[in-house]
Design a protein that fits this description.
Elements (H helix, E strand, L loop, with lengths): L1 H18 L3 H8 L4 H11 L3 H4 L2 H16 L1 H6 L3 H15 L4 H5 L4 H19 L3 H21 L11 H13 L3 H13 L4 E2 L2 E2 L1 H12 L5 H14 L5 H13 L2 H15 L4 H15 L11 H18 L4 H20 L9 H32 L7 H20 L3 H17 L1
Antiparallel strand pairs: 1-2
């Protein structure tokens, strides 16, 4: 009985000793056509606890499965080989973070297997519009291209990362509706100030990060971070000042908003009529805001500044009908306000009668001042053919106010003239 027990113990010892020898696995990996034998051997060896305790075992398991992953036929036969390889490699790195054993055995090709195969599988599934799978494979291509470039295991030792893999990992993630992951990949591209990949401009990535992602998430810090990058790299893109204004607007401080408008319209893009127009609109809306119970104390001053900006917009773009219409509306509203003041003068004394008469005259002058702006709208749009909906509305608004003004002046021929034009807008335009 003792002899038998001794024999069994020797046999077990011999088996474990053999289990620590990865030479067979190495041989199978190196000989073409014997990967399945390598798989059988490494699977058997790695069932043993002592083999699992060795970094070398996990490395060889990673290499065997990465080679299976890189082989078209075996990849189909053994699906999920990449996840087994990746998990084994992670276990290996825990024990050998400097890759000493990998380098001694010349197994840098492991990373190449994982990178190259993942990239090609990513392209295949991307072209098939299988976004989840594409994102999955490009995730691996990014991970292992990073490993290659960081350790200079590839032929090109000057690259820091594979921009194409990172780009498509981001695009696939975005299309798979995993925007948080897409932002990480896109952010990496932006932080490296990359503007072209494979000859194509990628400015939209910076816009996506600023406008579609971080600003939508109300993450002001990250929005400002990528906005600053975008402004440096694409200084002429109008999204940046537009976003800055939106952020200032949301904060609710009008002084800060107007200061930002002033900076943009005087220093950054002084010749842009749209920003100048919007500045005028914001000023005017603030000047007539009565949500607090009354208009701002300096309402007249703000309205004058609004008209100044709108006139500048019209100067920059003489055919910008919206600016002409708003200038006419502001002036028309001023006339209405002046005329309304006559109701506050109730007396019948000569001086009261004169005050009312003076106000009516002043209002009439303001109405006259508004007319050329509406006529300009008619000149810009009335001679055109089919108009877009907003331009048709602008033209009808101009005709409507001209009709109102001439009704007050009792000029029936003018009223009839513009009424006909008003009625024909939808037919002719």
């Amino acid at each position: 009985m003792k002899k038998l027990l001794f024999f069994v113990m020797l046999a077990a010892f011999a088996q474990i000793g053999q289990g620590q020898d990865f030479s067979k696995v190495k041989g199978y990996v190196l000989v073409p056509g014997t990967l399945e034998q390598a798989k059988t051997e490494i699977d058997k060896l790695m069932e043993q606890p002592k083999a699992q305790a060795k970094a070398e075992g996990w490395l060889w398991k990673a290499k065997v499965y990465s080679a299976i992953y890189a082989n078209d036929k075996l990849r189909a036969k053994y699906p999920g080989a990449e996840t087994i390889a990746n998990a084994a490699f992670e276990r290996y790195v825990q024990s050998d973070p400097t890759y000493k054993i990998l380098k001694e055995n010349g197994l840098q090709s492991y990373a190449g297997d994982m990178y190259g195969t993942s990239f090609s599988q990513g392209v295949r599934t991307y072209n098939s519009k299988n976004w989840d799978s594409a994102a999955y494979f490009f995730k691996y291509s990014v991970k292992y291209s990073d490993l290659i470039f960081k350790n200079k295991w590839g032929r090109d030792t000057t690259m820091s990362f594979d921009t194409t893999s990172v780009l498509y990992a981001g695009v696939a993630s975005e299309k798979a509706n995993n925007k948080d992951t897409a932002a990480l990949y896109y952010g990496r591209i932006a932080e490296n100030r990359i503007t072209k990949i494979s000859g194509s401009d990628i400015g939209d990535i910076y816009k996506w990060l600023v406008d579609f992602y971080y600003n939508t998430k109300k993450d002001e810090v990250m929005t400002e971070k990528y906005l600053a990058l975008g402004k440096q790299i694409y200084p002429n893109d109008l999204l940046w000042p537009d976003t800055e204004l939106e952020m200032a607007r949301k904060k609710g401080n009008k002084d800060s908003l107007f200061a930002k408008y002033e900076e943009i319209t005087t220093k950054e893009i002084p010749n842009n009529h749209i920003f100048m127009y919007n500045y005028g609109v914001e000023l005017y809306n603030y000047a007539i805001d009565t949500s607090s119970g009354k208009r701002p104390a300096n309402s007249d001053e703000i309205i004058a500044k609004a008209k100044e900006k709108l006139n500048k917009s019209l100067e920059l773009a003489p055919d910008y009908a919206q600016a002409a219409l708003l200038l006419g509306q502001i002036t028309y509203n001023q006339a209405v306000d002046i005329k309304a003041g006559t109701k506050d003068i109730k007396g019948t004394k000569p001086e009261d009668i004169k005050k009312r008469a003076d106000l009516r005259i002043a209002a009439g002058k303001k109405f006259d001042e508004a007319i050329p702006y509406f006529e300009k709208v008619e000149k810009i749009l009335g001679s055109q053919g089919k108009l877009k909906m907003d331009n048709r509305t602008t033209l009808k608004d101009a005709y409507d106010l001209l009709i109102t003004i001439y009704e007050q002046k009792n000029l029936k021929d003018k009223v009839d003239f513009y009424t006909t034009k008003f009625n024909n807008v939808d037919k002719e335009h």
